[in-house]
Amino acid sequence: MRIVRLRADSEEMYSDTGSDYEDSSDDETIEQAHEPDFGILFDVDGVLARGLNPLDPAIRAINKLKDSEGNMKVPVAFVTNSCSRSRDKAAMLERWFDTPVSPEACIHAPTPAKLLTSFHNKHVLVIGQEHRKEIAEEIGFVNTCTVEDVRRAYPFLDMVDHENRRRVSVGNFSDNLNFKPVEAILLIGEPKRWESSLQLLIDLLMTEGKPTKAPESLSQVKQLPIIACNMDLVFMAEACMPRFGHGAFLVCLEALYKKITGKALEYEALIGKPCEITYRFAEHTVAELAKKMGIKRHIKKLYFVGDNPNVDIVGCNLYERFLKDSWINRRNGNRNNSINRTLPRSRSIPSDVALYEQTVTSMESLLVGTGVYNPEKESETTIPEDKVYHGHRDIAHEPELATPTRYVEDVDQGISYILEKEHFTITT
């Protein structure tokens, strides 16, 4: 490992090339020189596992990152667009790979919503499936309700459910006028019953969170803030073809809202891959993990191993662009995060968030062929421009962004590539 100077002022870390630090043997010990100054981010589904079963190449890959005591020697985080409790994901990864994994190392689609502190105390409707209220609480939302709560409070709304239609027609039901208005909507994952959730979401959006009276004019209705986590149209599980993801549910919601109101649905924030806020939060997480591991060097490079060109790889390339623009912006003396001006409002990063200082200057993406991407059907080097675009409407279709830094057959090959490129050897 070459020796580098670590400077306290991060503005000076960015070199003229935009991707390196200045070499020096004065400011760093020999011990630090043998510490990693890079981190690795893994997608899970399609990279490390298919469904609930780890892939054999993933087991070999993780073993290459462990020392003789089974501990990771490189700061690693798991960045997935799935939605579950962090402690559950950490426990599963520990079982799969026989190595300690902290819940903080598990970044799910909703996790970066920890940064949206202005919404944490509002009365928020959480859409998802199992543990959705607990997950929302884990990331800071303390006053939440569910679709089931809304259905009980307003029993006449859900008429797509014929059983509910028959039930209310013969019973003595009325709206619960004491039910607190919904102030924001947190979409952490697709619900079980799309039709009922879509109906109630439209009702709340058209009535500013209190669906007891029809709006007199839709043009005068102020749309509730919507935080959407995970824009994946599809994901890869055990089936032979990709399955509908949360992005498919968002497409339905957007289309219904547009059809009924004539207005485009607006998002307060888009969270999860491929949005920049997720990769910025991942950089923060890797820096925190490195500090806990006793690594004194700044993390200057990130690698991401993913299986979905339109999600993982696009996100990496968007963040690489963000990094370059951000460092240029800071070198020019602007430290107020005005780089957000280049991002759509729904993808902006709050300027007042508590994150470790940005030290990463470059990011590489590795695309594997064990998940969504099928190398037998598609070119390894380019994504055809006429390919159907599966990305979210708030992320411009730029086909070149779906091209990885490198294609590898599986994650094991990817880790070998990273360790060789970084000239990093782990003593076992």
TrEMBL record:
Residues 1-10 have a biased composition (Basic and acidic residues). One of its GO terms (biological process) is glycerophospholipid biosynthetic process. Residues 11-29 have a biased composition (Acidic residues). GO terms for cellular component: mitochondrion. It holds the Pfam family Hydrolase_6. Residues 1-29 are annotated as: Disordered. SUPFAM superfamilies: HAD-like. InterPro entries: CDP-alcohol_PTase-I, HAD-like_sf, HAD-SF_hydro_IIA, HAD-SF_hydro_IIA_CECR5, HAD_sf. PANTHER family: CAT EYE SYNDROME CRITICAL REGION PROTEIN 5, CDP-DIACYLGLYCEROL--GLYCEROL-3-PHOSPHATE 3-PHOSPHATIDYLTRANSFERASE-RELATED. This is Haloacid dehalogenase-like hydrolase domain-containing 5. It comes from Mytilus galloprovincialis (Mediterranean mussel). The lineage of its organism: Eukaryota, Metazoa, Spiralia, Lophotrochozoa, Mollusca.
